[in-house]
């Protein structure tokens, strides 16, 4: 109603009938209402429900469960070795995935920024992994790592990296690397596409001017390309970090968190608790901890950004 | 041309070649195993191409497995999700692009937040909500969930397309007496057709790939989508590599088709929600 009042005040000489003005004022809300209603009922309501589950005993197969149990889940969680390992694994998984995707994505973007014959087709081919559904990417790589049908163990063996052609996905020390490699393969295009777009927005005459002044390629990269890319790099890396730390598909498909929960990240641990053990209460408690961690991380980014802005 | 220049061009082409090989090799292997007959599967394990090829695995998968049902279910779910999301996102994106209204800031914030928080949190509560409504084990339930998950990102995407169309167009139509909604439907929407196609493609691909919620919500074979069917097949018959990979190749086909459709809009799509993979 406030907005209506504000609107009619703003257009005092508005001669249109009230009904017309009312319709105009409500138009944006009518346009966005269906989308909003859906988001609220299918995302916001379950989010609040999920937070309440964290303090309740909710097990799907136990009809007598459902009572409030206070902080019991969190007490259990503080003694859960697997949870701590999942936390460490999340850092490991996110750090390596983002770093490798970014470095290889940046190199690919730089390679594609130079015009050459057949660039369009090459671009379509190297971006193709992004189109592969994540479950299929996971299965595809777990088959490549499988010594029965996949070539990778045999190649590692031939190179002397392995004492026998074994599956790294069933090796407790190495299993985390399987999903990381699959994730790097799958995610390089994302960085390459966004960085390539940023690269192509750099005015070309800057490079010409620099090379007339005698700047070499490395110097041009450091003093022109990097400063221009910096904002894109910062935003994509920071947002991608959140997205990848939540991305459990590849781990669920390739190792299922195994062997013996060695490759579990927090997101896949939540899914395992909810899907395999059907313990919704405990799963929601872990989810709440993950949410708090992610909010803290996002706050840090916001603070960091404001600090950078105020410094300029 | 100096020798140094030739050398750097050569290095550039070799690096490109390495990337292409890395990107395509897994898919190539998938295809290769899917056409290798069973009797050669183990004896010619790591040969680059089998000495004989056959389509027996494809034939088996199409005739004697439930994959055609899974494929059909996935098509229904992804197709309906894409259409519904695009309609809702066109409306909401139009509002975001053309109106300044109270609460807009909060709506945008809400939509951005939905892109950031872990969706896996919602697996349990959504199951609990849908189950008394009879929407677990149903394609309708999946469509509702996927639609909600994809609407925010698609709204930003559609908004970016509307932003590219000058406002004068509908203002001219409205001076001629059309209401804004008529102007939107008859003038603006037709101009955004490529954007609409891109949004359809993005949402279809996202819904086609979704795994965790379909695993949780679907248990029977009748309503299983492709990912669920393929994963249960893998855990049940884990030795039929040829058939699994033939099924994998089939799952890849729609994704690749839609990828071609949206190729031109990749940048816009990836930066619209700024976080959507």
TrEMBL record, chain A:
Gene Ontology biological process terms from the UniProt entry: transmembrane transport
One Pfam family this sequence matches: BPD_transp_1
Domain ABC transmembrane type-1: 87-301
Entry keyword annotation includes Membrane: yes
Regions that span the bilayer: 29-55, 91-112, 124-145, 180-201, 221-244, 280-304
Cellular component GO terms held in the UniProt record: plasma membrane
InterPro entries to which the protein is assigned, alphabetical: MetI-like, MetI-like_sf
Membrane topology: Multi-pass membrane protein
UniProt protein name: Multiple sugar transport system permease protein
Organism: Rhizobium giardinii
UniProtKB/TrEMBL annotation, chain B:
One annotated Gene Ontology cellular component of this protein: plasma membrane
Cited SUPFAM superfamilies: MetI-like (SSF161098)
Membrane-protein topology: Multi-pass membrane protein
Listed InterPro entries: BP-dep_ABC_trans_perm, MetI-like, MetI-like_sf
Pfam families: BPD_transp_1
Membrane-spanning ranges: 12-31, 75-94, 106-127, 139-162, 183-205, 211-234, 246-267
Family: Belongs to the binding-protein-dependent transport system permease family.
Protein name: Multiple sugar transport system permease protein
